[in-house]
Every structure is written in structure tokens, then in C-alpha cells.
Specification:
The protein is of the alpha+beta class. Helices cover 36% and strands 19% of the residues. It is flat, with a radius of gyration of 22 Å. Bound molecules: iron/sulfur cluster (SF4).
Length: 184
């Protein structure tokens, strides 16, 4: 009897707020005419009586989607496993939506409480050089005592990460400022 080849699947579990889940899924709200053909009966803000009624739907938008961090993290784990002799064929994220089933999550297009999404395989050299650079930078800053430059706007999703998702915001001037603004 032929022995079945085993498949190595790397799965990582996350608990994320619905905004981050929508970002990773690339789900963006867009306004489209109501397919039923309904029209506005009265004029209002931004529309006039007789205009097609607009509804909100959620569409995949590759420009909005950002999976860079989780892709890199899981590929890093993949290389650690493979270096230890455990080949990885597939990678998955199991995401529990922290605010799943709430009005806010639904308004972001997040209708499930849990998502499974595949993670792309990135070239080994790209992953290794990214983390080597990060390690070198970290050691350099620890030795010199000089704080690194703050994250770039694309890395912070234009500040949203600083406000809601950064685990080290208390050690960062931009993070402290973002939380101060939130309180006021
Ligand atoms: S709070 Fe600071 S470290 Fe955290 S994401 Fe924002 S800029 Fe980066």
C-alpha cells in the first residue's frame, strides 16, 4: 500500500478587532445604486427626489488590503520550522473577531465571528533579509541608545494602528500623542 504524503500546515490564531480584519480581507465600503431600482422620494443631504437610492456594499479592494505584517510573520515561522526539519506546504490564519456580531463590525462588512484565510508564501530570501535587517536595526538602536525613526504612515495605516493596534504605543511619542488625542 502506498504511504500517503503528509502535508505540513502552519496555522496561527489571532484575535483582532473588526477594522483590522476588514483591512486584512481588503473589504471596503462602497455606495452603489439599490439594485431594486428604488429612488429617493424626497431630497436630502447629497441627493434629490427622484435620484436612485444608494446602498452600501462591501467590495474587495486590493489597494485597501494589507496583509504584509501577518504574511511576513507566518513566513518567518515557516522558515524556523523548515530549518528545524518540518516542511510547511500551507499557511493559514484563524482570526477571531473581537467585536464580532456587533453593529460596528457589520458596518465594516465583517459578518462572521471567525475567519480562516490562507497566507501567501513569500520567497525565503525576502523573508530572511527583512528580518535580518530588523534584527540589525534593533541591535544597533539598543547599543547606541538612540530611538529608531517612527513608523511610516503606510505602516501605521495613517495613524489607526497607533490609536488602536500598536502594542508598544506607550513607548512611542506618536503613539502617546495618538492616545492623548483620542481621550480629548
Ligand atoms: S505608536 Fe509608534 S511604534 Fe506604534 S505603530 Fe504608531 S508610530 Fe509605530
Amino acid at each position: 500500500m502506498m504511504k500517503k504524503k503528509s502535508i505540513g500546515i502552519l496555522k496561527d490564531s489571532k484575535t483582532w478587532g473588526s477594522w483590522k480584519v476588514a483591512k486584512v480581507l481588503g473589504l471596503k465600503a462602497v455606495k452603489v445604486p439599490d439594485p431594486s431600482g428604488a429612488i429617493y422620494q424626497r431630497s436630502g443631504s447629497g441627493y434629490r427626489a427622484g435620484d436612485p437610492k444608494m446602498i452600501t456594499i462591501f467590495q474587495y479592494d486590493p489597494e485597501f488590503q494589507d496583509t504584509f505584517e501577518s504574511d511576513m510573520q507566518l513566513n518567518h515561522y515557516r522558515l524556523l520550522l523548515e530549518d528545524a526539519g518540518y516542511p510547511v506546504d500551507k499557511m493559514m490564519l484563524e482570526i477571531i473577531v473581537r467585536d464580532g456580531s456587533t453593529y460596528i463590525a457589520t458596518n465594516r462588512g465583517i459578518t462572521e465571528e471567525m475567519y480562516y484565510i490562507p497566507v501567501r508564501i513569500i520567497y525565503d530570501d525576502e523573508v530572511r533579509s527583512y528580518f535580518d535587517r530588523k534584527r540589525r536595526d534593533l541591535l544597533g538602536h539598543l547599543q547606541s541608545g538612540v530611538m529608531p525613526d517612527p513608523c511610516k504612515p503606510w505602516e501605521t495605516w495613517n495613524g489607526i494602528r497607533c490609536e488602536r493596534y500598536c502594542p508598544v504605543w506607550e513607548s512611542c511619542d506618536i503613539g502617546i500623542e495618538a492616545h492623548r488625542e483620542e481621550k480629548t
